[in-house]
Structure formats: structure tokens, C-alpha cells
What does this fold into?
Amino acid sequence: MSTLADVASPAAHPPIATGKLVRTWFILLPFLYYTSSGFPGAADAGSAQSASFAHQIGLLIVSVICATLIAKRFSAIMSASIRMVPVLALPVLALLSCAWSVDPRQSLVSGITFLCFMLFAIYIAETFSPQGQLDLIMLTGAIAVPASIALALFVPSIGAPPSGWRGIFVHKQQCAAAVTLFLVTALHWKPGHALLRPLRAVYVVLCLVLIVMSQSRTGWLLTLLALTLYGSLRFLQRLPAKDSLLVTLTAIPVVGGLAYLFSLVATLILSTVGKDPTLTERTVIWAAVWDAIQQRPLLGYGYEAFWRGLQGASKDVVLIAGWNLYQAQSGYLDLWVQLGVGGFILVVLMTVQAGVDAIRSFRRTSNPSFVRWCIVVILCNLVYNIGESDMGLLRISWFLFVLACIGLNKEANPTPAYS
It folds into this structure.
């Protein structure tokens, strides 16, 4: 594929590269759509069912683009799906949930778009090399991050509400989480041209500025975790295998001890960063959602069918929370309440498979930087979804999680060269 260097100076390359260049920018449309959740400055809503007509048209266009690209490599995508059964099984379960959903039509429509979303992730993994995938993500961030800062500065009513900057994103937490992953990508990305190195430094600074200005404490902690993981994994990869194993085994009890100490002083730490012991009523919402899950633990309420404000199954949760929320403030609970225990188990299987693939490829890969990127992206998503909801949604964070899981599998099981 065309790299960032190709885009920066297309005249320096022969005309034969034009087709790939056009394809690259065409593919960017879904990336940008998933980054902004379709519409900048939108209220925090569950998904397409509460979006505007314009958003639904945008979703249709993006789905058609993805379906067209998928069709061109359908056989390769299906072959890849056999190696990553949970990745394909999750959207299939979402689609099948229309049979028992409290809103069958919504689950059917959303299930189809979710299947397209997941197949598009497999398409990207099968079509582009690891460097090519990072190029696409960098291009997406190179548009989204400056656009978010510009929106916050010049249209603050949309991009910078009093709670913190959110730019083109749905809310500030999503902004901070997505930009953290863009930052992680920049740290692992290899510039294809010397002129891009100073631009990468500027890009990193812009990412940090946007994360700080989001005022998202969750985002700040996630960034700290991401940078810690980046440095730690890079250090481990440079050590001899035996030393790396020794350091890892030593670090496990240390991290466990630190986690225990954190639990003892959690209230003090939370108050220091402006959070109350309920994590801004998250614990109250979790308890209410868990009560709803216990009523339909096996199958759930159907994909994208639970959150309907006071008009649907979410009524009791909304009344307990005291405001019209559209998520469980936890990706794990959100997935369970929609798809039942099966949806939760599939994510666990995706994570376990990614863990096994990470161990197998960590030291034997020809793309050590890409493997580190995959591990950081997966761990950051798993942590982020404890207190926020992105799992199973058409958002860039979940897309990168899926892409990272597939990427680790491909690195652990090398196949012929990318096209």
C-alpha cells in the first residue's frame, strides 16, 4: 500500500502508484467515520438507533464501502476467519440475537452493520502489511487530532463543552481513549521518509495536548498505562530471552502488590483526581445493569436493543441512575446485557487467543514493533472498558482491538506476503 511518504509527496512516485493511493484514501472514509462515531459533537447515544437521519445515511454509505471492499477479498477473509473464529462468531451472534431480541428489527439492522464492521477489520488485516496498517491509523489520526483541536478552539460549543475537549468525538472519554491509541501508534510507527520524523514529533505533541485538554481522568490514566506498557515491552524485547522471563516473573508479584496497595488507598486517590468512591455513580449503574442481566443472563436483550431510555428494557436502570444514559459504563456489562453470556465468553476467547499469540510471537516475530503495538492496544482496551463502553460498538477503539487480535494471530502464524 502507499505509505505516508507516498501521500506526502505523490509526485516523487511513478503514476502506477496512483490506484493504490486512491484506494488508501477511499479506505480512510470508514476509519474516520468510526473515529467520530459518524457525527462530531453528538450526544452520548448508544448507536445508530438514536442517531440523526444524516448519521444513518452516513452509516449506510460506510457500510456499502466496506461491503464492496470485503467482496473483493471474500475468500481470503473467510479463510482468515477460520483462524480467528471468535472474531467472526461475535457479529454472527449479534445478528442471530434478532430472534430473541426485545427489538428484533433494531438487532437485525445493527447486527448486519456490525458484521460488516468486523469483516472490514479482517479485510484490513489481510490486505495490508503491519506497516501499512499503522500507516492507515496514522493517517486517520493526522486528520482526526488536528480537526478535533480546531473544532475545540473555533467551535467550542461542539468541540469543547465545559466538561472538557471532545473535538470530533462523541464525548471526552472516547476522545482521550482514541487519541491515546493514536499516540501509541505514533510511537510504534516507522516513518517512511526522513521529512516525516519531525512531523511525527508534532503529531505526538498534539495528541498529548488533546488528551490533557479532554479533562478525562480515565484518559489520563489510560495514557500513563499505555506509555508504561510501551516502555516495558520495548525493554523486554531487547533483553535476552532468559533475562526477559526473569524480569517478567519478578514484575508479576510487584504489580500485584501495587494493585493491592492501590485498593487500600483507592478512596484517597480518587478524591485527589476529582472522583468520588462510586466513580461518578458507575458502581450504582453497574449494580442496576447486573440486576437486568440476571433476568436474561444466557441470551441477553438483543444486540443494540437494551438501551431505550425510559421506553425500553433500560427503564429501571435509567430511573436508578437519574439521567438518560445509553451505556452501562462498562463494556463487559454492556456486551453481556445485549448478547448474554455468549457475547462475554467470545470476548474472553478473543483475549485468551491474543494472549497465546502474543507469547508465541513476542520474541520470534520479524515485526517486533507491531507486536508491541498490538499488545498495548489490546491491554488498553481491556482496561478502558472496565469503566467505559466501547466493546461491540462501531468505534475506532474497538476496531483497533479487533485489528490487534488478528495481527497477533498472523504474526504467530505467518502466512504469504500481504498484497
User: Anything to note?
Assistant: Residues 331-361 form the longest helix (31 residues). DSSP finds 18 helices and no strands in the chain. The chain has one domain: 4-238+278-412.
